[in-house]
Amino acid sequence: MTDFLPWQQTPARRWLATRERFAHAWLIHGRPGCGQMEFALAGAASLLCESPRDGLACGECQACRWVKAGNHPDLRRIRPDAQAVREGALDVAEDAKKQPSREIRIEQIRSLLPWFNTATHRGGWRVALLYPAEALNTIAANALLKILEEPPEHTVFLLSAQAPDRLLPTLVSRCRRLPLAVPPVAESLAWLEAQGVKDAAARLAAAGDAPLLAREQAQEGRPVMPAWLDLFLDQAGRDGDGAALADALQAGQPADWVDDFQRLWLDLSLGAHGLPPRYHPAQAARIATVAQALDPAALARTADWLRDQRRLAHHPLNPKLLADHAARTLLQSVRPVRADPKGRA
């Protein structure tokens, strides 16, 4: 990929206009699903391009063709093996019990050292692209920090991150930060429709205005309102053991449904104050019905509980026990507050 996304082109031109006095390391960060990695890769292509147009990669020169083919000698992409597998750049391990690493390891950082000691292929920049940067384990992050303390000549490091607060502060201090804003809704909708995404407005809202996330969910065939949220809204405020909701949660990934419920919880909080939902405007009536009967204290406690579950989402917990507990906790928190005969809540 050598092209910036439509909403990235103007900030990219401003950024690349300073390439003659470019910082040796950049931390490119923003909300998930808004294109940080795509920006970094297109930025690498523009730095390596031999015939840039208005500062951006031409897409036609030999350097751009090499970048598209993934074999430019002056570009290295450092990412976890699991990410490389998703991109089709690495085969799944033959041993099915050995899962591809989710971390950037020190061996990957050390593999760059011989590369730094060779001349650049065309006498221009050498670009090391690391993503997601928060996947650097502690040892690898410290190894990268040592390199950035005495950066090799003619080399630019582009670190793409969704959660820069998870990086070593000393590593962040060695980088110039380049925050990417959430694109305007109109531009995102136009892009999604050009990509053939149906129900673009609803999908974009459900994805928190993140267009790449909206497209990914559409390509996966995921409904705008996931099954577990639909069941939850149906069962909220009713008596029951939540068995159907637990089954739906067990069929999904904890990281997915925790994220979905955090978004719904914001919509419920807005509804409790008479405000329209942010993520599911098409479900405004159902959300308002649930929100009006909520205990604000229970709503806040469950928001804290969901935040805790997000930290545990990738831990090897028993899926059935986790789903059962989550279904009970979520439904219990939206039981209407009943006053006792003496008028106490």
From TrEMBL:
Q: What is its EC number?
A: 2.7.7.7
Asked whether the UniProt record includes Nucleotidyltransferase among its keywords, one would answer yes
Q: Which UniProt keywords apply?
A: Nucleotidyltransferase, Transferase
A GO MF annotation of the entry reads: DNA-directed DNA polymerase activity
Keyword Nucleotidyltransferase listed: yes
Looking at its record, which EC class is this enzyme? Answer: transferase
InterPro entries the record matches:
DNA_pol_HolB (IPR004622), DNA_Rep/Repair_Clamp_Loader (IPR050238), P-loop_NTPase (IPR027417)
The UniProt entry's coiled-coil ranges are none
Q: Which SUPFAM superfamilies match?
A: P-loop containing nucleoside triphosphate hydrolases (SSF52540)
The protein depicted here goes by the name DNA polymerase III subunit delta
Q: What is the lineage of its organism?
A: Bacteria, Pseudomonadati, Pseudomonadota, Betaproteobacteria, Burkholderiales
Q: Which gene encodes it?
A: holB
